Amino acid sequence: MEEAYVRLLCPECTKDWESTPTDLPEHTTLYHCPNCHASRRLAEFTRTDRDLQTLKSLG
């Protein structure tokens, strides 16, 4: 079975990365960019609506 992943993008510094939903907190949790330490709800870091839906369903 292939493991799902979520693509993330920092709205401030534009760093992009991927993570598995199980390694991330809930989408409403305050999250910090690993690059610039910007703080926003995790949902605001998802690149697409599909990434957000994956996070909600598998997280």
From TrEMBL:
InterPro entries: DUF7836. Pfam families: DUF7836. Residues 1-58 form the DUF7836 domain. This is DUF7836 domain-containing protein.
